[in-house]
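Researcher: I've got a protein sequence and the SMILES for adenosine-5'-diphosphate. Could you write out the 3D structure of the bound complex as structure tokens? I'd like something to compare against our soaking experiments later this week.
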Amino acid sequence: MDHGDVAWILTSSALVFIMTPGLAFFYGGLVKRKNIINTIMSSVVLMGLASILWVLIGFSLSFSGDIGGVVGNLDWFGLGFDGFTDATFAPNTLLFAAFQMMFAIITPALITGAIAERMKFSSLVFFTALWSLIVYYPLAHMVWGGGYLAAIGSVDFAGGNVVHISSGVTALVLAILLGKRKNYGKATYHPHNIPFVLLGAALLWFGWFGFNAGSAGAANELAVHAFMTTNTSAAAALLSWLLIDTLKTGKPTLVGASTGLVVGLVAITPAAGFVPIWSAIIIGALVSPICYFFISVVKPKLGYDDALDVFGCHGIGGIWGGIATGLFAQNSINEVAQWDGLVFGSATLFLRQIAAIGITIAVAVVGTLIAFGIVTLFTKGIRVSKKDEELGLDISEHGEAAYPAFNGMD
Amino acid sequence: MDHGDVAWILTSSALVFIMTPGLAFFYGGLVKRKNIINTIMSSVVLMGLASILWVLIGFSLSFSGDIGGVVGNLDWFGLGFDGFTDATFAPNTLLFAAFQMMFAIITPALITGAIAERMKFSSLVFFTALWSLIVYYPLAHMVWGGGYLAAIGSVDFAGGNVVHISSGVTALVLAILLGKRKNYGKATYHPHNIPFVLLGAALLWFGWFGFNAGSAGAANELAVHAFMTTNTSAAAALLSWLLIDTLKTGKPTLVGASTGLVVGLVAITPAAGFVPIWSAIIIGALVSPICYFFISVVKPKLGYDDALDVFGCHGIGGIWGGIATGLFAQNSINEVAQWDGLVFGSATLFLRQIAAIGITIAVAVVGTLIAFGIVTLFTKGIRVSKKDEELGLDISEHGEAAYPAFNGMD
Amino acid sequence: MDHGDVAWILTSSALVFIMTPGLAFFYGGLVKRKNIINTIMSSVVLMGLASILWVLIGFSLSFSGDIGGVVGNLDWFGLGFDGFTDATFAPNTLLFAAFQMMFAIITPALITGAIAERMKFSSLVFFTALWSLIVYYPLAHMVWGGGYLAAIGSVDFAGGNVVHISSGVTALVLAILLGKRKNYGKATYHPHNIPFVLLGAALLWFGWFGFNAGSAGAANELAVHAFMTTNTSAAAALLSWLLIDTLKTGKPTLVGASTGLVVGLVAITPAAGFVPIWSAIIIGALVSPICYFFISVVKPKLGYDDALDVFGCHGIGGIWGGIATGLFAQNSINEVAQWDGLVFGSATLFLRQIAAIGITIAVAVVGTLIAFGIVTLFTKGIRVSKKDEELGLDISEHGEAAYPAFNGMD
Amino acid sequence: MVISMKKIEAYIRPERLEDIKIVLEKYRLNGMSIMQIMGFGNQKGWKEIVRGTEVDYNFLQKIKIELVVLDEQVEQVVDSIVETSHTGEYGDGKIFIYDVADAVRIRTRERGEDAIK
Amino acid sequence: MVISMKKIEAYIRPERLEDIKIVLEKYRLNGMSIMQIMGFGNQKGWKEIVRGTEVDYNFLQKIKIELVVLDEQVEQVVDSIVETSHTGEYGDGKIFIYDVADAVRIRTRERGEDAIK
Amino acid sequence: MVISMKKIEAYIRPERLEDIKIVLEKYRLNGMSIMQIMGFGNQKGWKEIVRGTEVDYNFLQKIKIELVVLDEQVEQVVDSIVETSHTGEYGDGKIFIYDVADAVRIRTRERGEDAIK
Ligand SMILES: Nc1ncnc2c1ncn2[C@@H]1O[C@H](COP(=O)(O)OP(=O)(O)O)[C@@H](O)[C@H]1O
Ligand SMILES: Nc1ncnc2c1ncn2[C@@H]1O[C@H](COP(=O)(O)OP(=O)(O)O)[C@@H](O)[C@H]1O
Ligand SMILES: Nc1ncnc2c1ncn2[C@@H]1O[C@H](COP(=O)(O)OP(=O)(O)O)[C@@H](O)[C@H]1O
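Model: Sure. Here is the predicted complex with adenosine-5'-diphosphate in place.
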């Protein structure tokens, strides 16, 4: 075991870890002041819940054995392999489990942006646990654990399908099932603390270096390559979002910059270790207009209330990333991609990427419906009362005010 | 010198470094708005003071030679060894000194939570400097520098005794000596900025990966193991604190989640590289009820004012961690533990852990009394005037208001 | 390629990356509430712009070939070398490019503090792009790309000239050209959110470990040495600034601590890998009084409005650092320094350091005048209207309010 | 000159503000000011449990509305606020009415009733 | 109908609020509102030294208390506030008293003096 | 005793505050309070575009000034505020004037007009 590789994957694990608090601030800054605690808490509780589930069964169900190409088995229940010697996964199975754990934390956390400001906290906790079981572990298995999506030859470097499309699609379905916020469309939903939005976005970018470059599994040339494509796509998307802002209103916004960089990171995620650097500029530059168009034109027509645009950013951005991987991947960069992308003349990979996206969407939709059904069965009402919604979920669900001193006393 | 090990310990040092600002936010968010500057400053000044003391004499007194098993000598005054070649400590003495320096910064910073909102800044600075000399360097020497606590065979992976019990006990003694805040019990002491509390807690967790996994001294299997036990204990404690919140009031709080994860990290600190992963779930799951019980039931009876529960979290949590190490340690995981823990049938390690905890407490109590005595001798009053306390320490001690624009003008 | 070195430089690149958001908070907390979005945005936009420019032409102009000792060529346009095999620079050219990219982002971001609260955002974006081309790439080439400043034997470990003097001098020139803020001297310019100032300063310190220790190019003894000098200088400067605060007013301030640590980091930057650790105490301890004197005594006499003291901190601090390198460097620590410093009896290096500083200043002044001239030519007015300045640049330039809920509704 | 304007000060639940605004727009009032305050009344403050210890918020977050209107509008406006804010539970709030001595619209320098028309 | 209520507006030092609250509870006042304001008076603002440069805070942070009470309670309440807030130094604050034209309790729709009883 | 004091309440643009303060200092007023409020008037709120979607800020950020002065000072002060705050555009703000029933200076316990002299 090369200690350099261990150093990098340990570091990457810590970097991916900090993304979840980052997300909490990104989301928390975007909601109303009376809901920031609830929004942050929705991510934070998963730092506990998803970690423990992962150690107990998640890693095993994702990466131990294979049942029908769909899910793993329970042989590694409680990380029941020898953590000091097992090297089924590189650089070492236990380290791989730690790194992958961080993905299993942030993915359900991403969903929580969609249902912000109205879902019961207890139902949310219950839902995300079930969803991890029904959707996340199978998908992680199918893509990275030797399951079906790997078998058909589709590729996903760091989680375009597993993390972003899955959470984005789930967000959409859940937002529809849950219904709109009171006064949606009438009331003003503006971010209450924009510096927090940027703080979160910056921590996400920072952590994403571990997310993508760590997915190389070693401190090697591929990791360096993924580092550079990641930064480049984020940068290009940040700029193209600001350009749209400027063209539309003359005023480039910080929320726009933050959103742009995030969708740039989303889009490059499946592609980071497969595509040439120049294509990262294209991938990033295009993801912002695609998401912007979806959020500002398509979404209002469809009329659902995805509060923080999880589907518009992660779903749409992730789908574009998966397609872009099919367009720009090069076998010479990473031979895990068995074929070159469409722009290099071969349609094989491209079609399998489309197929993989389709399957991911199907798994997410079906899994979400099942999880939602179960949660509804077992809890009386998955949504807070109208009165609690007005009062704010911080007080009603958590009994806390985020900044009580700011209009009271010290 | 393996460059992979260097990479990891450099990274770990940076990670432990960021814990002190993290602590500043964790504490700063918990106090009243009029005291946040003072609270943050109490940690920040140590980033300067403890660093310089360490370079000059601290490292030497902790790790150079041995005087009676209690403290080192001054041979390495000013880091007076050859930083490029000396390898007395792994991976290289200078790097070890850098990593350990970060511990010498955060440990006195932990204490400052107990005396928040009422202690004179100058007295605090004087006290923490003396305390480092009288308590911290000897303890670091006794545990890690080849002193008495190592000699008796007790173990402390990353600082349960040196960092947490020592600071927690000191906090208790100092809080008692200093007396309560005005209106304590009557006035409302609620956190003024909860998102800052979480920001700090998240940075602490992030940095703790370096704290614990870096304490392996290399990017090896033990580091990976410690990484996983650390995360697992934090996660379990976060969840068990939320469970208590829910059982008691129906409302899981973000302050509770933040506190829970911190005590989970405290408890696993001495144990991280000695105990099996499954036991980290137990260690974490139990530390929250233990600390919660202490803070909500025992503390009010005793009636001292440990403002931010440093003793309740770090003292009690650290003691539980030291005991738990004696319960769950396995020689097969790390042969530094010469015996298995109590649950594996041997009482030897367990008893030595108890002894080590007792000695640590004794050193901390006596050292604190001495340091307090000296400070009182040399300064006129260690506590701010009643009027300054009412006005807030930000204005009275530092001449600054943290967020002046929030009820004034831009 | 040693994977340990790759791990450390990847980590360092991520660490330097986070400095720019850190800077955004450091600066953002210092301005008025109505200008925080604009101030943050000025740094954030460069995370996009400077990245893309770097990938396209910046790296090539800095590090590919050599034209007259002044600038590189365009052979590596679009990073057009083989990223998997090229090892012209250590540890690998692509990784070197990623690490250096982070410097190319933060350097122009530093400038933006000087012109805060009054410059048109579009003009600023245009200016920083031009400035990167005219000043930054040439300077990077001259110092690290085999250009003139390397040729004369002057040294700059991590960017005293390239980063700090260049941005500081530019800041001064630009502040003079732009003119003062409305009511400057009369109105109150106090920081609106001091915890954000500290958050930013802490992230800067954290990232600076990558900045300086990463500049060793490997996870080796020199990196460890640079890590230690960096921390030591920051610590000493933090303390000496607090000492001045205390002597002058009796009240040590958090803004003072934050400023002190930053100038301590600035001063050690060129010296980190050349000077002995004890000298880092001197370098840090002296930089605070030097900068303090400049800002509080010299600046008011000169009467220009460098809003956040970019020249006073980075310019003056960087010059002192360059001189200090000429005083304390030792060939035995790093043979890149061909001669010992002045205190060890040789004047050669010292004089070349002075020459290098002079040349850097000249390049920055001339380049800034040219860039400013071009921007003025192509935009109608580089400064916002008086009305927009009163209203605040957040609303006028970006259409956003940072914390709208804090005196309105939730 | 007899000035026939009144100032209405209403202390209400923050969560009712959106609705009140909509109703008041009906009367084409051309001005209104709001501010965040802390209040206590028959509705007592709430308790927050911090680490197992009860801490009181003696004061609750409220919104204060200030509205200067013509005498003849007073009853309508008061009724609207009552209608929208009424829940029947403690904490619904109070409305106080005061005489106004004079008014000025800064933009036009109009005085008296013209200033708010 | 003659309304015999007064509104008391007191601008006080923030640090005195806790104590005032305790004293006012004695009178079983069933309502009161507070807000954070900035004030300037005979007590001049303080100076902050930012990086060696003086910057003025012309305005100081103060608390404003608003209390509507019956005429007969006015003197008692004013005395209590003065008692608790008095330090004898500049910046102790001021109290102003105004007539109230009418009052409404939203919960019960009571008018006049009943609204605050 | 006839109290001849008035309270002036001005709702103004935040960006005018600095200038108003300078002018008011001329009159050696020895007290004034300001607070941040949200207002709406003839100047309608602004629109923020968040991710391509318009969201309204119905209310605009304003500053409210409260000033108790002697009757004879009222016109001067009002004029000064108008002078400094006038831009001629919507949103310049309004000034309202109220009678004061009594005043107390907490520091000295002075009552009536003496309290503000
Ligand atoms: N006498 C009063 N003077 C000033 N403000 C008051 C007064 N009474 C009530 N308020 C304000 O109104 C708010 C709601 O009053 P509350 O007494 O709880 O309503 P209710 O009597 O309908 O239960 C309080 O929080 C306070 O801000
Ligand atoms: N005439 C006034 N109008 C409005 N508010 C005032 C007036 N005089 C004083 N205040 C308020 O009272 C506070 C304290 O007043 P100050 O004059 O400093 O007290 P003192 O005269 O007792 O020293 C001020 O900060 C301001 O908020
Ligand atoms: N009738 C009113 N009652 C209370 N506040 C008012 C009233 N009219 C105006 N205001 C306050 O004054 C501010 C400016 O008023 P606005 O009507 O926009 O000025 P103008 O009529 O000069 O354009 C508003 O934002 C509001 O805070």
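Model: Chain B touches chain F at residues 407-410 (CB under 8 Å). Residues 3-398 of chain B form a domain with the Ammonium transporter fold fold (CATH 1.10.3430.10).
Researcher: Great, I'll pass this along to the crystallography team.
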